[in-house]
């Protein structure tokens, strides 16, 4: 008796149902799985001889490191990004930048919306997980959200349109600067889009061997790139809220106000610190005319949001400056943005908690709103997990390379915060060091909240409370 062959439709539907069930049961693991799969796919693509400028095969360590740096929108490199890759390789890298910058689940939701012309509940939940990592935990999210579930459709449209409009606008704005720098029309055209995508996604890759050295005296080029990095680092929920109500700042959600206030404050304080510490250093700011030094200091401060572009040789910077930039990079940019780090709102919540404790207040309050204590617990968890990852990677690389602590710590934090700034240590790492930094970039981009949720087998609820006892703290 002949058995009926299983139809393709049945197999496809079963596979789709299995994926849907996995995404529903463990959205954190689903996100990490998709993210990691994209890295390995790009690794295979970059390993092909067609991706190499000279038709050779890129080593597994270099291909993996580049793929992780691209999908994680980090910007660190172990090869010369301007000369190593062919046109095919550069196109693959640009596609990877867009996927990594927008977010895997957000991009999947946009594609699903385009294909089906509707946004189902599961698709909304997937996109919501990208816009707020707190949603990856089972159960309702208690605090008021900058993006509510019913507004996810508008957020997806904002993500797609803002990425397109900002990158095209930046490319058009910097095109004349590339022509003035001596590039022909075609080279200036494609490099302007490369710079625009690299700036908005906070990656920091440069398409020419000289990098930004050609534009250190071009305030227009540096200002436009800094604005693009800033817009990418504040996050899509902030852009979404501003497009809806930029005329009514009083009605902005607390998340938007905290993100903008903390980001601007860190940029100003960082610029002042860099200028003060490097003003007389002839290897960095000291070689520039006094009138252009504030611009360079401000540009480098913006780049610590996760931008990755550099107009000074960081290997020649003072140790005090590197430490200041370490702290700025570790904080990073806004939540649900193209930037990395522990996020500016995490830092803001910790300061609000310390301020409330100093005043003797029971609640954290800001902008006439009360912040619940579970947000503080999440902020503390993010900082501790992040510090643990940075410490473990730094210890390993210190033992492996015997390099100075300030150089190792700088590059490790840059990898964790997906920033891309480097003292030059990354390019000299052996394969074992490349794998360690790749894992650090992966953990930093996935996010400590998502990673912790994925490692947890289940979310359990206790039906009882134990007796309370207070340890001595401080």
From TrEMBL:
InterPro entries given in the database record: Cat_transpt (IPR003445)
UniProt-recorded name of the protein: Potassium transporter Trk
Subcellular location: Cell membrane
Keyword entries, A-Z: Cell membrane, Ion transport, Membrane, Transmembrane, Transmembrane helix, Transport
GO molecular function, one term: monoatomic cation transmembrane transporter activity
Gene Ontology CC, one term: plasma membrane
Membrane topology: Multi-pass membrane protein
Primary location recorded for the protein, binned into one broad class: membrane
GO biological process: metal ion transport
Lineage, uppermost ranks: Bacteria, Bacillati, Actinomycetota, Actinomycetes, Micrococcales
Signal peptide span: none
Membrane spanning residue stretches: 30-51, 63-85, 91-115, 152-175, 220-242, 254-277, 327-355, 375-398, 435-457
PANTHER family membership: KTR SYSTEM POTASSIUM UPTAKE PROTEIN B (PTHR32024:SF1), TRK SYSTEM POTASSIUM UPTAKE PROTEIN TRKG-RELATED (PTHR32024)
């Amino acid at each position: 008796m002949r058995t009926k062959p299983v139809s393709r439709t049945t197999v496809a539907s079963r596979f789709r149902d299995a994926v849907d069930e996995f995404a529903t049961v463990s959205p954190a693991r689903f996100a990490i799985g998709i993210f990691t799969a994209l890295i390995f796919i790009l690794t295979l693509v970059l390993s092909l001889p067609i991706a190499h400028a000279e038709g050779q095969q890129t080593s597994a360590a270099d291909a993996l490191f580049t793929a992780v740096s691209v999908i994680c929108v980090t910007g660190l490199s172990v090869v010369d990004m301007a000369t190593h890759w062919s046109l095919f390789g550069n196109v693959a890298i640009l596609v990877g930048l867009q996927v990594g910058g927008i977010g895997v689940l957000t991009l999947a939701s946009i594609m699903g919306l385009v294909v089906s012309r509707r946004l189902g509940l599961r698709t909304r939940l997937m996109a919501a997980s990208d816009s707020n990592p707190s949603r990856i935990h089972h159960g309702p999210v208690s605090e008021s959200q900058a993006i509510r579930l019913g507004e996810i459709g508008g957020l997806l449209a904002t993500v797609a349109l803002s990425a397109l409009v900002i990158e095209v606008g930046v490319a058009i704005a910097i095109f004349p600067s590339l022509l003035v720098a001596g590039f022909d029309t075609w080279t200036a055209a494609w490099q302007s889009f490369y710079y625009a995508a690299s700036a908005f996604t906070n990656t920091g890759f440069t398409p020419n061997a000289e990098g930004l050295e050609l534009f250190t005296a071009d305030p227009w080029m540096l200002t436009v790139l800094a604005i693009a990095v800033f817009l990418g680092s504040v996050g899509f929920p902030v852009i979404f809220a501003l497009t809806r109500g930029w005329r009514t700042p009083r009605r902005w959600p607390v998340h938007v106000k905290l993100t903008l206030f903390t980001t601007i404050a860190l940029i100003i304080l960082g610029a002042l610190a860099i200028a003060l510490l490097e003003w007389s250093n002839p290897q960095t700011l000291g070689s520039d005319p006094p009138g252009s030094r504030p611009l360079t200091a401000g540009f480098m401060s913006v780049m610590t949001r996760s931008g990755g572009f550099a107009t000074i040789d960081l290997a020649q910077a003072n140790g005090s400056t590197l430490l200041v930039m370490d702290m700025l990079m570790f904080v990073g940019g806004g939540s649900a943005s193209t930037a990395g780090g522990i996020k500016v709102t995490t830092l803001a919540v910790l300061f609000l908690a310390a301020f409330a404790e100093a005043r003797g207040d029971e609640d954290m309050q800001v902008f006439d709103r009360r912040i619940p204590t579970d947000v503080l617990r999440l902020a503390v968890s993010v900082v501790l997990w992040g510090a643990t990852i940075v410490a473990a990677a730094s210890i390993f690389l210190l033992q492996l390379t015997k390099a100075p602590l300030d150089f190792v710590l700088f590059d490790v934090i840059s990898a964790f915060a997906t920033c891309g700034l480097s003292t030059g240590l990354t390019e000299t790492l052996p394969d074992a060091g490349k794998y360690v930094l790749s894992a650090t970039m992966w953990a930093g981009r996935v996010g400590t909240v998502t990673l912790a949720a994925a490692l947890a087998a289940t979310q359990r609820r206790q039906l009882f409370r134990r007796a309370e006892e207070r340890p001595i703290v401080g």
